[in-house]
Fold this protein.
Amino acid sequence: MVDGEPHGLRRWVMDRVATTDFTKPGWIIVVSMAALTMVGVACIYVTNTHYSGTPDGPANAAKQCVAGLIGLVTAWFVLRVGFRRIAAHANVLFLIALVGLLPLVAARLLHTDFGGLIPERNGARRWIQLPGSPIQPSEFMKLAYILALAWYLRYRKNYRRFAGLVVPFAVSMVPLGMILIQPDLGTALLIIPVLFAMLYIAGARLRHLLILMILGATMVPIAWPYMKDYQRLRVTSVLLQSQSMREAVLADQDKWGFLATPREAATWASDSGYQLVQSVRAVATGGFLGQGWGEGVYVNRSWLPDRHNDFIFAIIAHQFGLVGCLLVLLCYGVFVAAGTFIASAASDPGARLLAVGIVALIAAQVVINVGMTVGLMPITGMTLPFISKGGSSLLANIVAAALLISVARERPFVLSNKPTQYGREREEQLLFAQEPQSPPTEPRP
Amino acid sequence: MFERRLRVLLVLLGVFTLAIVVRLVDLQLVRANQYRDEVAVRMKPRPQWFPFVRGRILDRTGQVLVQDSPTWELCVDYKIIAFDEHEYRERLVRWWSRRGRYRGEWLGLKSKGSDEEPVALRLRIEERLHLRIAEMWQDIKVFAEMHVLDEPAKIVERADRVVERVDQIRKNRIRFRDYKASKREIVVREENHSHPIVKGLDQERQVLARERFDACPWVHIEPSSARTYAKDTIAFAHVLGRMGRVSLDDLKDDPNKPVAQDDLNDDPNKPLAQDDLDEDQNKPDAKLPKERNELAVYRPSDIRGVSGVEYAAEQRLRGSRGRLGADKKQETKTIYEAAERGEDISLTISAKLQRSLYGLMQGAKMLDGTLVQSGAIVVLDVPTREVLALVSYPSYEPSSFSEVYEKLRLDMIAMPLRFRAVANHYAPGSILKPLVGLCGLSNGVINLGTRFHCAGWLDPAHPNRDRCWKVAGGRKHHEWVNFVEAIRGSCNIFMYHVGDLLTIHQMCWFFREFGLGEFSGIGLLEEASGINPWPGYITDTLDQQVVPAHHHQFAIGQGELSVTPVQAANVMATYASGRFKRVTLMRGNKQLESKFEPMLPRVDAAHWLAIRRGMYDVVNDTGGTAYDHARLEDDRYVLCGKTGSATVFAQPIMYKIAYREKGDEAVYHQEVPERAAIPAIKAFERQHFDDDVPVTVLRDQVEAVEWFPPVSEARRDETPFAHAWFGAFLQARGADGGPDFSVPSRIAFAVLVEFGESGGKVAGPLAKEVAATILEVLGDDLEY
């Protein structure tokens, strides 16, 4: 060994970096995921959730880091095992996830917290209080659901018929119902786009899916009168954020009364629409370049409730401005692009569906969360993947990413009976690469 | 197919992303400034207001009659007051649970760290709020000076009243805005305010209250002030007036309100038209060309003077509040403006004299030896016409007004709320006879030597009509009398003859020069102008023809003619001095001082002397009507006066209202204590304002059922009663013991005893005591 040359761990890392192809989709996913998680930790670090004692931002950031580390360990485990072996037990995992939801449903229906095991937060029971940290089973449910659905759909053809859609929908309705009972509208709503995306990719007929969508849309006016006031207001808030619309409601109840009562319209900005108003203000006051990390009134004051989890995008926008927002969206875009690449390169339908499901899950979460933050969609409790504070969410998302990478790693192996064109080319390349080459020999004297 | 479908999904995602990016650009680039402004407004410190001290009201010697003393109010947020109503409870619990983790500590909910929520937080918050609010009411009882063992309901009653009031405001809003459904929810501003539950906390108790309610962030101890009256101010209650809540009209017509665009069209420098002045002369400060003071603007929760001097001098007494807040021009700069106290108002009244005269009134006796029920005394300084005493009897203790208000309002016999000295007008009776005679003299229809024969009646053909008072009860008539003798003996017949020789127009014009039918200049809201019945008044308002009976009636001060006690006293001062001047109650009232120039009635000096001589004789000559009752034994002054009795009939004090309920044919009756039918109907309608079943008053069936003084229904129209008058002035005694009319008189006064029957026998002795009291209080030199 020559003196001055790197050795030990450093040498190992340098060798790894030198030999790794970071342009591979798997690595792109890792990099974008890491960037997003770091942005999240940075934002959680500066937002304190209560002011009575010592600031809790750093502590929360540390917890988020711990969740991330656990996620990395789990991801390593997933990569070692491989998605195929995990997916083989998809049904078991799905059942386990359903069983995980059972105590929450029971707690909700029986109005009990099982001795503090399932506490109520903001009127919902979504968490199981384990020693150390609470976990949110519905986050893992999403993953198990995607795995189970992908594995169910992979070799079937019956979803080309309308009747064939019954089983996937029935399977979806079970977790959907259980999650709605908690209630966790955000997670429940997430299942629908994921289901549609996976069915569509699997090859279900577009008109069947459209019929189902139209059926669902016609349910809204029927269900409208039976919805609770606060639920209705969440939907109408998208319209009520306009001052002129609120004035119209006050002025002409006969015409606009279905949106809100005069009292609701009058107190909207300070009552049911408070969070939305503050969120939009936080986003807008970020401007082009933002107020700077840890700066800005919405970071330093608790005007925006839930700004460290569901509304963290508003805090990003406030601190880093339009530029920061676009960069974050770019990271997600890169993630989605890489995921799509992996899906299209995947060799068998099961892997492909799994990849699409995971990409759809992440993309739908981002669109809904950012949409509600900027006032384009009704407010639902939904985290921003990798960024929002929440151990279960981060852990589940990292595992999802790991599954995606696992799919990507499996590309060289041809196990499908229907290899894609890309797969064939690749196979040929690999076959060619495996041809033994004669070592250069020196002529003997 | 897979690739194509994947592309479709990607395009769909791209559309959503594009929408988000467009929205972000819109918010963060296009409308960023608008939102920055909104946040800047929110960042601004909420302006703090500091109450001002209202000016004091002093008597002429500087003695304080009423002043503001700093107090504190214990106010509670409306949502807590109305906590039992589901909606507010929901909102509050939601509010607390949304901010629960750190705010919850106020409620004693222990925070277990950011991730450990209390079990069923909302339920616990609600439970804890209930408990804390119950404790709060219990604690407030202590500050409301209630006994600890008193029913908590007693203090909660106050809260209920606030809720009722806010409900009423909401109801009114629904009514005025013409909402179709009465149950429609609307928000009123009062719901977001805190409302005072305990008022008048002193320094020590407010500190205690702050400590006690530290854990109740919805309890606010607000600085305030309270009107504190000097001891024994019962005699001043009407003069000082009352404070009341600002009304909707006050807010609208606030002289300090920033100028609206519409008002700018009016030229502020334009001189006020005479009509405006006449219309507003009992609101003297309303049009003062004072600079608009934004800090003195009324707020809905403010109180202001609503009667008496408190009303009349409102703009001067009112200070301007202090402010701590952001500068309008420089958003970031905080400015502080100290509160300014209001101006002190100095009255011309002598507190000592006022109290003494009120005491006299309390002890005065009627003919039958019973105590006087009601009356008034007005004392004027003749040269300046400053009011030295303005007694209205009976009165009430102003400091406990709110507690006894209902009792006072329903007392229809004594009517203690009436400000008799200025607000009631009565027929002047014989105290006007000198004026009628003077009118005859000035118009040349009689002279000092003119004599008329008094046979007890005017027309021998109708001996029961137009009679002289002298013949009643079998007394001897006056025989031949001249002007001075007619005054001395208060001869009706002489005056009838003079009235016959004059036109109504001549008489009324002359009365006007003595201020009859005009506001006296005292500047109080309550003041009545009395009636000077011009021919137009008789023909147009009363729809009657002018007949000789009117001449006769006016000549003896009866009929439609009526004066207030202040006007009567001013007529006496005019008799004494020979010049008319408006009276003054408040010093420094530039508007009134400049408005009214003193007038000199066109009367010869000899005629003035004749009047004074006649009035001297009334009291000091054996033939005078008040010789036995009002003669003043004093070395330096003589009392010159004139008795009077104003005929009046019993007045209704209770009305029976007939009404129907909607959807019911039966007629119901309810008795309402009032002095006239219209107010009785209005009072009845007010009582039934909130009824679920609307009622309709049958106006043609409303009838009076009780009268005062009590009299049988059959004889009601034939039984006249009389108010007793005595108008007088003090004249210096000459070397010969008689009056020295060359020395200007200093004091004039009028005494009225309601239903006193005899001016000489009831008002006379009282007037004598009044004169003695004046001399005693003001001193022999009348240096006051």
Chain A touches chain B through 63 residues (CB under 8 Å). The CA atoms of residues 105 and 182 of chain A lie 6 Å apart. The longest helix of chain A spans residues 312-345.
